[in-house]
Each structure stands twice: as C-alpha cells, then as structure tokens.
Amino acid sequence: MSETTAGTSGTTAATDAQRTQGAAQGQGGSLPADGPDSFAVQIADQVESFTVAVAEVAKGDDPDSAVPYLLLQVSQLLLAGGRLGAYEDIVPEERYEPDTGPEPDMDQMREQLAELLAPVDVYSEVFDPYVPRSTPVASRISDDLADIVSNLRHGMAHYREGRVSEALWWWQFSYLTNWGPTASATLRALQSLVAHVRLDTPLAELNGLDTDSDAADDDDLERQAGRVMAAEIATPLGLKQRS
Q1: pTM, two decimal places
Q2: Does residue 222 register a pLDDT over 70?
C-alpha cells in the first residue's frame, strides 16, 4: 500500500477502514450501465483539465486573468466532485491500495501561485460550518490549489495504470474528506474577489493576517482582511477603477 505525502496525507489514515467497511457492506460496487469507462473518462477528463489549467496559470504568463480563470476552473471541478459525492459508494477491487510511486513535488507550483496571487492569496475560512461558533482561520489560495492538484494526481496515477475503480474510489473518498472542502473554500474566496471588483467594494488594508496567525473575532478579521488592488483583476473583467 502506498504511503501518501503532504497533499494526500490527510486522507490516508481512514482509507483502509473505509475500504473494509464498504466491502463488508457490499456498497456501491456497480458503475453506470454503459460501463465504468463512460463515468470514469468524464471524471478523468475534468481532473486532467483542472490540473493542466492550474499548472498553466502558475506559470504567470497571464497574471491579469488568473483570478477569473481560476474561478471558472474550480467551479467546473466542483461539478465533477458533486457527481462523485452524489454517486453511490465506489468500492475498489483490491483490499489495499496499490503503490503509485512517489508523490509529485508540489512546492514549485505552490510558490509560483503564491507569488502570482500575493495581493490576495490569504483569506479567512470557517473549516466546518456545522460546528457552532467556529473560529475563522487563515488559509492560502496557493496552498489550497496545490493540495487539490496533489489529491487529483494521486487518483490519476491509478487511472493511467488502468485501475479505474481504484481511481474513482480515491477521487470520491478524497472529495468527501479533503479536496472537496478545500475546493469549496477556494471557490468562495475567488468568487468574493471577483464580486469585490465587480461591485467596486475594495477590501480593507492587509495588516498581518497570515496562515500562522489566529483570527480572534470578526472585527480583527475585518481589520486584517487585505485590500484588493482592482488593477490586478479589473482589466480582464472589463471594469474600470474608480478615480
């Protein structure tokens, strides 16, 4: 069984138990009537499209379009995630996960995205909306995107080796436990950035909010929330700055 690293380690501990439980209960092993390839190819195509698109954005060749383009890509990925989440439990053929080899190093992509999104990279997020009085925590869009890509590539490694049910199981399980919540949070941050520009409501000045700091209350979050420089994303949205 492969040992996953940074982007996928958050789901590793529960995978064996989940696989065993699914097999014991006889859950969901069936795939659509027209065969596994139909459903799997559609999900794999979306996964591949997203990972390629994020890698292209990270190169920084078109920084003015980065935010709206990422908004579109994350939205489309979550459609695939929604299909995986709504589908019955997929049970892989093998009891233990086959080794996929070393996980790809995401540090370069993470750093490129952080540099590209520097004015707006850090945002605040409530980890679980169903936990009463949850305290918002600081997150980074660049970290989120790199972790999502890492999770998706892990499943793609199985898919390319012909282990279709294994790939689908991984994408479904990690959607529910890791990349789904992360992508949802990232989507809210990106949508908020676009909304602030379109509605001409710039954010407050950055004042120390970071992923290493504790967000104590709403007032503190508001003070630290980070001013979006409209010039960064207004041009591709067809907007003009207020004089």
Answers
A1: 0.72
A2: no
